[in-house]
Write a structure and sequence with these properties.
Helices cover 51% and strands 0% of the residues. It is an all-alpha fold. It has a domain of 44 residues. It is extended. The model has no long low-confidence stretch (mean pLDDT 86).
C-alpha cells in the first residue's frame, strides 16, 4: 500500500506554471507529480547545502553556456 500524502498549495508565477505543465505533459506525468519530484529533489539539495544562502550561491551551467574561469580570492 502506498504512503499517505498531504496536500500542499503553492503560489507561483503563471509562466512557471505553464512551463511545469509542459514538462509534465512531455513526461506523461501530472503537474502534482512533477511538482512532488522537483520539491523532494530540491529539499535534498537544500539539506546538503545547509542553508538557502549556500544553496543559491552555486549555479548550474546551462547547456551552450561557455565555462568561465573563477578567480581565486586571497
Amino acid at each position: 500500500m502506498g504512503e499517505w500524502k498531504a496536500p500542499l498549495s503553492l503560489r507561483v508565477r503563471q509562466a512557471l506554471r505553464a512551463e511545469l505543465e509542459g514538462y509534465a505533459t512531455r513526461e506523461k506525468r501530472t503537474l502534482g507529480n512533477i511538482g512532488e519530484v522537483i520539491l523532494e529533489w530540491a529539499f535534498e539539495q537544500l539539506k546538503a547545502a545547509g542553508s538557502t544562502e549556500r544553496l543559491l550561491k552555486y549555479k548550474i551551467r546551462l547547456p551552450g553556456t561557455p565555462l568561465r574561469r573563477q578567480e581565486v580570492h586571497k
